[in-house]
Design goal:
Elements (H helix, E strand, L loop, with lengths): L6 E8 L5 H14 L5 E8 L2 H9 L12 E4 L2 H7 L5 E5 L15 E4 L2 H9 L4 E3 L21 E4 L4 H14 L2 E4 L10 H5 L4 E4 L2 H8 L4 E7 L3 E7 L5 H4 L15 H8 L4 H14 L2 H9 L7 H12 L2 H17 L9
Helix pairs in contact: 1-2, 1-11, 7-10
Length: 340
């Protein structure tokens, strides 16, 4: 570990539902809480399903202290809110969503993929890549996929994608189910994954499936991302697709029925075993937590100087963080509750 860290706060904009950043937060908090000498708490603006799980199962409380040794913040809104409570490492999960854009108030930035790292570099933010971590003790195979493809699970967040997959599976005589976080979210996704042979989705859905020893098809048709696919995940191609978070943006293909059928026909249950081995060696949440703690090594005088330089071109944001927020907390006058 870098500089001694004992009190850690993990912050995420929202925890009322199920999604990639929410489950990332849960697995990170669980891993940190299992490390010797670490006292962890959490912060969010919106409590719900995942915050209840954090408090109920992990016994980790909501923010109770004024100061911490280190803060891991998943979104720029939480960086702005928690500024001055501790050095902040902002973890950036994407290049497109506004919440994922780097905050100049953060002390250092972590990217979850090479694509995000390049985006941060282009914006002038020094960063390190630390891949998504999965709770591989909980997310594991409890059954083996069939030798011949029989059951397909979609974790796509797009109805367009799910309708297309459902029609294909019906025409091929395959059992099909879908779980969309906006319609029928599921927390213990590993229990569902283990009932299927092939999992379709992008991002963290793929990593969960890998941890459960399932072959995967990288595809979705989300509004912000569009129809994007990397196709059937051959284990040897993982290191290419992970550079863009298994988002479909590596090959950047658009799939229609013909292409989806072609990729499904590549199904090989042995690929699930190899993907599980990759998850064990590469996507272990405990390794992620330890690597994140090592980011304190970057909190040097040069880093602080770079931060102050950023402040000069973000004066409104700095004014809000240094002055307006404190005045608002003392007076509750809405005029001072400004965001920039």
């Amino acid at each position: 570990m870098g500089k001694e860290v004992k009190k850690v706060l993990v912050a995420t904009n929202h925890l009322e539902g199920v999604g990639g950043s929410e489950l990332y937060t849960y697995d990170l908090i669980k891993a940190l809480s299992e490390l010797l000498g670490i006292e962890v708490e959490y912060f969010t603006f919106d409590k719900g399903l995942i915050s209840d799980k954090i408090e109920g199962e992990l016994k980790v409380p909501f923010m109770s202290k004024k100061k911490y040794d280190l803060i891991f913040a998943n979104h720029n809104t939480t960086v702005r809110e928690l500024f001055s409570r501790a050095p902040i490492i902002q973890i950036c999960h994407g290049v497109l969503p506004e919440l994922e854009q780097p905050s100049p108030l953060a002390d250092f930035h972590v990217a979850i993929s090479e694509e995000v790292s390049l985006h941060l570099n282009e914006l002038g933010y020094q960063n390190e890549v630390i891949l998504n971590g999965i709770d591989i003790q909980t997310k594991k195979p409890t059954s083996s996929p069939n030798q011949k493809l029989k059951r397909v699970l979609s974790l796509c967040q797009s109805e367009k994608a799910n309708i297309a997959l459902k029609e294909i599976c019906a025409s091929k005589g395959l059992d099909f189910s879908s779980y969309n976080k906006h319609k029928n979210p599921i927390i213990e996704v590993e229990k569902v994954i283990n009932r299927f042979d092939l999992v379709v989705g992008i991002g963290r859905s793929i990593y969960d499936a890998m941890a459960c020893g399932r072959p995967c098809l990288i595809y979705d048709n989300r509004g912000y991302n569009g129809n994007r696919a990397d196709g059937y995940l051959r284990p040897e191609k993982f290191w290419k697709y992970i550079t863009k978070n298994c988002s479909g943006r590596y090959l950047n293909r658009q799939y229609k029925e013909t292409e989806l059928i072609r990729e499904m026909e590549k199904y090989d249950p042995k690929d699930g075993e190899r993907l599980r081995e990759i998850a064990l060696s590469t996507l272990n949440a405990h390794d992620m937590a330890r690597n994140l703690l090592l980011m304190t090594d970057y909190l040097t005088w040069q880093n602080r100087l770079n931060k102050w330089k950023r402040f000069t071109s973000n004066t409104k944001l700095v004014k809000r963080a240094f002055f307006y927020k404190r005045i608002y907390n003392a007076t509750k006058w809405t005029y001072f509750n400004k965001t920039y």
